[in-house]
Design a protein that fits this description.
alpha+beta; six-stranded antiparallel beta barrel
Length: 117
């Protein structure tokens, strides 16, 4: 027995699935001054809603709420079921401070306190 689903019903099911994913996700992709909700994020890429998100390309930033997670170079992969999928060419974790160019001992003092004589 085969199951046939009309185009209208499939479109409604896709819209309901995307709405559920949008509610559950805190992740956003930022390109310039614009941000768009990420539906799914995996190791090699992410997906966004195809209908409301313009085609993204190049360097983007990924956020979890206000936290900057990654800076990524992306390429478009495919559109399927109302989702546009992108793959990472490069993904670099964002840090809140610059990396050190020397070894810092774990028990090193944070600052030196002294007094003037």
């Amino acid at each position: 027995m085969s199951t046939y689903v009309s185009k209208e019903i499939r479109a409604e099911l896709d819209a309901a699935r995307i709405a559920t994913l949008k509610k559950a996700s805190r992740l956003r992709v930022g390109m310039g001054d614009n941000t768009f909700k990420i539906l799914k994020l995996w190791k090699d890429g992410f997906s966004v809603e195809a209908e409301t998100t313009p085609r993204l390309r190049g360097l983007v930033d990924i956020y979890d709420g206000a936290n900057h997670l990654y800076q990524c170079l992306i390429i478009a992969d495919e559109e399927e079921g109302g989702e546009m999928r992108y793959e990472f060419k490069r993904s670099t974790a964002a840090h809140d401070k610059a990396p050190l160019d020397f070894y810092r001992a774990p028990d090193a003092p944070i600052a030196l306190l002294g007094h003037e004589d």
